[in-house]
Every structure is written in C-alpha cells, then in structure tokens.
Specification:
Number of helices of chain B: 15
Largest interface: A-B, 54 and 57 residues
Number of strands of chain A: 5
Number of helices of chain A: 17
Structural class of chain A: mainly alpha
Number of strands of chain B: 0
Helix content of chain B: over 70%
Strand content of chain B: under 5%
Largest sheet of chain B: none
Order of helices and strands of chain A: EHHHEEHHEEHHHHHHHHHHHH
Distance between the termini of chain B: 6 Å
Shape of chain B: globular
Distance between the termini of chain A: 45 Å
Helix content of chain A: 55-70%
Strand content of chain A: under 5%
Oligomer: heterodimer
Order of helices and strands of chain B: HHHHHHHHHHHHHHH
C-alpha cells in the first residue's frame, strides 16, 4: 500500500482551505477576549456543546473521506506502475470490508440470507426455490438459525464493553488535561464536571461522546461480519453508502457559503455604505436574482453544465473527477441563488451603521472609505454573517436531497443522501417492503441536520444581541444566564 | 395609489429584462444550440444534417443577437434572442419540444396546482399562527420549551420523508386515501387530503418558530404592558393587540408567495402524480425541454414581482399609517 497516487479533487482543496482558514481564524479569536466571549457562550449552552460534538463526528468522517488517492493496480510486471481508475479515500480504506463485500441484491439488516428467493441446485441435482445464504453477511456462522442471535449479542456486548473502556480512557485524558490547565486537582475537577458546576457543561459533552461510542463501536464490530443496515438493490452495503453521503452533505453545506459570502458581504456592505447609484444597482441585481424561482435557476444551470460536460468528455480523467466537478458547480449555483437574503440583511445593517457616531467621527478624521468598511463596518456585521452561515447549512443539506430527487442535484454516480433516497423511493411499494435504505438515509440526514440546527441556534443565541435580550427576558430553555462569561 | 402602482410596474420591467438576460445567457450562450441538439439526438453518431433539422424545427437556426442577412427591423427580430426571449414578455411561450403549446399547457395545469397549493398555504398559515400563538400564550412553560424542541425536530426532517412516510402510513398501512392520482371536481378531494396534510406538516416546524419569534418580539413592547395594565385578559391582549401589530412581518412573508402558488410544488406534485405545473416542470427538466424551463423561469419571476407589489398594498390594509406614494 506504499505507492498510492494522491488525487486532489477540487472540493478536497476547497474543503481543506476552509478548514485551514477556520483554524487560523480560531487562533486569531482565541487571543482576543471580546471575540472569544460569544464562542464561550456557545460552549456554555448544553445544546450547543452536544451538537458540536456530533457535528465534529460527522466532520471527521467527511474529512477522512476527502483525502483521495488512486490505488495501484497489479499489472503483473515488476517496476511498472499503473493506477486504477477508481478514486478511493481514506475512509474507503478504513471501512474497506464494507466497500468490498457486495451481495447479489437486497438483504435485510443483519441478515444471513438474501431477501429474494432464488432457485438453487442442490448437490443431488434437485432444484429448490429458497432464500440463498449471503456471500459475506454472516458467512462465518455454520448454522445461522441457531448461532446468529448469540453471535450478535456477543458482538454487541463486547462492543459496549470496549466502548465504555474507550470512553473512560478518553474522558479521563481530557479531564486530566483540563484539570491541569485550570490548576485544579483531578478528583476535584471530575467532581465539579459531573455535578455540572463548571461553566462549560463538559459532562454533557462527555456523555454525548459516550453515546456516540456506545452506538459506534458495537456497530463497527457487527459490520465486520454482517451488513448492519442491510444491502441495497445492487447489493451494496447501506451503512457504507450512508457514511459516504456525509461528505457530500458537508461539502454542499460549507462550500456553498464560501461562494455566497464574498458576493453577499461585498455587495451588501457597499450598497448600504455608499448608497446612491451603487445601492440602486445592487438592489436591482439581487431583486433580479431573487425573483427567479431558485429551483428552476438551479435546474437550468445544472442542465447546462450537464450539456457542457457531455460535449466535453475529455476534460475529466475519472468518473469521480466528473462527479466532483458537478458537485462543485452545484455549490456554485446554490451560492448564486442564496446570496440575496444575506446581502439584503447586510445592506440594511450597513445603512444603520453608517449613521453611527463612530463612523461619522472616522469620516470626519478623513479615514478612507475602504478603511472604514474594513475596520469599522465589517467587524460589526460579522455576527450576522456567521449566524446566517450556520443557519444555511442545514437547509442546504436538505436541499441537496430534494434537488437530487428532481434530477438536478449531484451526479448520479456520487453517493449522497439524495441519490440514496432517489434510488430507494420505489422500494416502499415493493412487496415485501424494503425499508432499510430509506430509513438509514433519512436517519443519518436527520441526525446531521438536527445537530446543525441546534448548533445554529446556540450560535445565534450567543451572537445575536436581539435574541439574547429576548431569551433573558423569557428564559427560553430554562438556562440560567451565565454571569461570568469571561471565565472558562 | 395609482401612481405608485404604475411606478412599481415600470420598475418591474428592468427586472424582467434582467431575468431574461440571465436565462438567455444560461441557455444560449453557455451552450450553443448545436450542443443542445447533440444532446437531444445523442452525443455520438449525429450528422450535421440532423442537427440542422433539429434546430430548424425548433427555430434555433437563427443568429443569437443580430441577423445581418435580414432586412430592416428583421435584423433584430429574426434572432434567437427576440424569438425566444423577448416574446416571453407578451406571454408568448412558444412550443415545447414535443410540439405542444406551452401557454395552453400552463392554463390547463394551473387548476390542479392551485388545488394543492392554496389549501396548503391557507391551512398552513392558520395552523402555524395558531400554534405559535398558543406557544406564546404558554411562554416559558414546559409546553413552550417542548414546542420549540418539536419544531426544531420537524425542521430537521427532509420534506421527502414527510411525503414518503405519509404515503406509507395513510395509503399503504391504513388504506385511507389513494397513494397518488388526481380527479376532476369533487372526486379530487380524496386525492388532495394527503398532499395537503403533508404540505401543512412539513412547513410547520420552520413556520411556527418564525411566528413565535415575531410574537415574542411584539409582546415585549410597551403597548402590551399598557394593555395588561388596563386589565385586559391575556387572550385578548394576544389576539387583539399582538396579532394585529405582528401583521406587518406576517404579511411580508406570506403575501409574496400567493401569486407563486400557481406554480405548484415540484416535489409534492411529482410524488402524488398531480398533473399541475410543478410536475410539468419536473418532466421538462428530466426530458431537458429547455423551452418549458425557460417559460417557467419567466412566469415564476413575473409572479414573484406581482407578489412584491401585492405585499406593499397589503401593508396599507393592516397599517393605516402606511400610505403608498
């Protein structure tokens, strides 16, 4: 496995840049107390930290799935190197067994037999119609009817035990690290955390990690020998499909905002600050874009890319590069249709800010417009940008599924929640019903979107001054207003 | 008032021209009509004659912007831009790729689209506003907190799930209504129940939260305190004062979509087999019928702009302080 040929897909590069930018920005924020304070409020809310843990789990899977390479193909000759046309990711390597064990067709979760009857020829020449054994799922069992339950229980129990052990190790390492940083004795610190007495609810975070481990480790142990979530029509493991879908959702949710941010921020602030003809022009542009029904604009643009890609087939080296180009373009066009809302908000805010005394003072001192925008206006609208960024994420993940259903989403060869649902939608009408593909796609998507929504709420509560006064007044979630926000 | 209306209508013209330019660039400049012909006829093994014939049948054989060979005004009119884009302004949509008149199809399919979209809109508005008012009435109690939790949960579910789940429960498991289809007149009712129900429920999460925030913002204002100090009951304060004063933000979100209801919903109509404009659009997208997609883009923009104007007029109805000048 030493000579892998790394492949940089466009979305990988952009995702990497985004992460890098995020890291640099967080380093910048850490050193400034006034910027740090709202983030601390996010961490101090229970739903915020829980959703953050779950989101980082998804992000981890997505990032593993974003490091691509082409495996070498054994040509039989030594010295010559050839690479397969398949583009694999680190995640594919990690969950290798899931990818490489296709069955013939549908099989139920944890099944040992196929879901459809087939005619099998027995050793003595007779033919029977029966459910044949799966090639891989539960193949290690000699007598599946008798051994299966015991084997599954055994694996789940082992998994739970390992998960507990792992959690104990992880959490004591983390708590030890924190206690050292706060210069508190380990025992005292553990007591404070689990009584919920420190400002950041680390106990909630740790219990979320425990829940993830308790679900994940047994699942991993089971999927070594079974198809945990069954297989789909062509016999692919549904768990594998669901895991691969995560990256597509993440890319769409994040890269789209990357596209729309510069447009919205630049145009919005300029319109609000300069007013006059610039304002008229910007308003005209966003009203025009907003008045086009977004699904239709996306459909039109994607159809046009499809035509372009079909007439220029030699531009793309592999199927994945092609699918990746379409994904990138989808992000681009989604960004083009959704920048108008943020732009309008920012214009309004800039209109308000330019009348503030400190801006007028800056103008009176002869500070250039450019510097005023960068130094005074931009930092004061950043909370709006951030809030709308996290709020958009979940909507974009959901939109991907709908667009793929309409046929203008990601490339059909790209695994995503949308393509999973799309290919499984006729299965509910089957007799007997095949429910597991749909159920897995929807539950993975639900978990991802729900945690994104909760996180977005926590961010909005922490950053939006208007919401903050509201929730202090009505104490919305029974959360005590934290007095010392600066103290971690 | 009339002056205002005229000015707004005039303002709509440049926007529609902009929309037209965007679609023109998308459909004819990014890809030439030759490319489109090649896609429709199959990328490989296509003769230039076949392409020329395809283009001629659909009127794509003219130059894009200027026709130097044509005399006089025809320099501008005998072009793709004039024939395909400018004529949209006269609601002359031309023919679809299968030769049918698009305007006729739109007229025919508007009814079924409205039959779904209008009840979803009205019932949804009524239901979400009442639910939000209830949550505000019980604010800061467990009912409110769990209501918010429910809304966040509902918001996080894919709209496709509501449709598939609804079809499974109501049609397959309980056999209450047919899975999909459409009928004329009263016979349509049994086909409408499920899509309307699904539409209302799937819009509920986001809607209730939105209205709840509006009401909460309103309820913190001074006039509400005054009303309570006068001894009015909380219910009266909510329905008489808060609801009326929250009308402006409610109308802003609601009125603008009313004209667009004609367009129907893509997903709902295609899942439930309703012969409306939404399923027409989906069919056009999947068969790459660009003439229909172009017509729908234009129609959608017109309806949106009508919605914007209607919104402004609706303000004067609920707030006597607003005058349109």
């Amino acid at each position: 496995m030493m000579s892998l040929k790394p492949i940089l897909l466009w979305t990988d590069v952009l995702l990497g840049l985004l992460i890098l930018g995020g890291l640099i920005l967080s380093g910048f924020i850490r050193r400034r107390r006034h910027l740090r304070a709202p983030w601390q409020r996010v961490l101090q809310s229970k739903s915020g930290i829980i959703s953050l843990v779950i989101l980082s789990f998804f992000l981890g899977i997505g990032l593993l799935d974003s490091i691509h390479f082409r495996p070498p193909v054994d040509t039989g000759k030594s010295g010559s190197k050839a690479y397969g046309v398949e583009v694999l990711s680190l995640l594919d390597l990690l969950v290798g067994p899931l990818r490489q064990r296709p069955e013939k067709t549908y099989s139920a979760p944890l099944a040992t037999h196929l879901y459809t009857k087939e005619t099998i020829e027995l050793a003595d020449g007779r033919q029977v119609r029966t459910f044949p054994r799966l090639i891989f799922g539960g193949a290690h069992l000699i007598n599946p009817e008798l051994d299966k339950t015991g084997d599954i229980v055994h694996r789940v129990l082992t998994g739970l035990g390992v998960a507990m052990l792992l959690w104990a190790l992880l959490s004591s390492a983390w708590l030890g690290f924190l206690s050292r940083r706060h210069r508190v004795g380990f025992h005292d610190w553990v007591r404070t955390v689990f009584r919920g007495q420190c400002p950041v609810p680390w106990n909630a975070a740790l219990f979320t990690v425990l829940a993830l481990l308790l679900a994940g480790v047994p699942a991993a142990l089971l999927s070594i020998k079974y198809h945990l979530l069954g297989t789909d029509k062509v016999g692919q493991d549904v768990l594998y499909l669901a895991l691969k879908s995560i990256r597509t959702g993440l890319v769409i949710g994040t890269l789209t905002t990357l596209v729309l941010l510069p447009l919205a921020v630049l145009l919005g602030i300029m319109a609000g600050y300069f007013r006059g003809w610039i304002d008229d022009l910007v308003q005209y542009i966003y009203t025009t874009f907003h008045s086009i029904p977004s699904v239709l604009l996306i459909a039109a643009a994607v159809l046009m890319t499809q035509v372009y890609m079909d007439t220029h087939p030699n531009l793309f080296e592999t199927v994945n590069a092609r699918a990746d180009f379409r994904l990138l373009f989808l992000c681009l066009i989604l960004g083009m249709t959704s920048w108008t809302g943020l732009c309008r908000l920012l214009r309004g805010e800039a209109l308000k800010l330019r009348e503030m005394e400190y801006i007028q003072a800056a103008q009176a001192f002869g500070v250039s417009d450019f510097r005023i925008i960068i130094r005074h206006i931009l930092p004061n609208v950043m909370h709006i940008v951030l809030i709308s960024m996290v709020m958009d994420f979940s909507g974009l993940v959901l939109a991907e599924a709908v667009l793929s259903y309409v046929g203008v989403g990601v490339d059909p060869s790209m695994i995503s929640f949308g393509t999973m649902i799309n290919s499984a939608r006729m299965e509910m009408a089957r007799e007997p019903m095949v429910w597991w593909s749909l159920a897995s796609a929807f539950s993975f998507m639900f978990l991802m979107v729900l945690s994104a929504n909760l996180f977005a709420d926590a961010v909005r509560d922490a950053f939006d001054p208007r919401v903050r006064t509201l929730s202090d007044k009505f104490n919305l979630f029974g959360r005590k207003p934290v007095q010392e926000a600066g103290k971690d | 008032m009339i002056n205002y209306l005229i000015r707004r209508l005039l303002y709509a013209v440049p926007i529609l021209i902009g929309v037209n330019l965007v679609t023109f660039v998308l459909f004819f400049v990014v890809n030439t009509p030759d490319d489109m012909a090649r896609i429709h006829l199959g990328v490989k093994r296509v003769t230039p004659q076949a392409i020329a014939k395809w283009k001629e049948e659909r009127g794509y054989d003219k130059p894009l912007l200027f026709n130097h060979r044509a005399p006089g005004m025809a320099t501008f009119t005998e072009t793709i831009f004039f024939q395909k884009s400018v004529k949209l302004f006269a609601f002359n949509f031309g023919r679809a790729d299968d030769g049918r008149d698009i305007a006729y199809e739109i007229k025919k399919r508007m009814g079924p689209s409205l039959a779904i979209a209008l009840p979803v809109f009205l019932l949804g508005l009524l239901w979400t506003i009442s639910f939000a008012l209830m949550m505000v009435f019980f604010r800061s109690t467990y009912l409110d907190v769990w209501g918010v939790v429910l809304c966040v949960g509902l918001m996080s579910i894919s709209s496709l799930f509501y449709i598939i789940g609804g079809q499974y429960l109501m049609s397959k498991l309980w056999n209450l209504v047919p899975i999909s289809g459409f009928g004329d007149g009263p016979a349509a009712l049994k086909f409408l129940i499920l899509p309307v129900l699904v539409g209302v429920i799937s819009g509920m999460g986001a809607g209730v939260r939105w209205y709840r925030t509006i009401f909460l913002e309103e309820i913190g204002k001074d006039y509400v305190r005054t009303a309570r100090a006068k001894g009015l009951s909380e219910l009266r304060v909510l329905f008489k004062h808060v609801l009326q004063n929250a009308m402006i933000p409610i109308l802003t979100g609601a009125v603008v979509v009313i004209p667009s209801l004609f367009m129907g919903s893509l997903i709902t109509e295609s899942f439930f087999g309703i012969p409306g404009l939404g399923s027409y659009t989906i069919e056009a997208i999947s068969s790459q019928d660009f003439a229909v997609v172009r017509a729908m883009v234009f129609l959608g923009s017109v309806l949106y702009i009508v919605g914007l104007i209607l919104t402004d007029f609706s303000y004067t109805l609920v707030d006597p302080r607003i005058r349109l000048e």
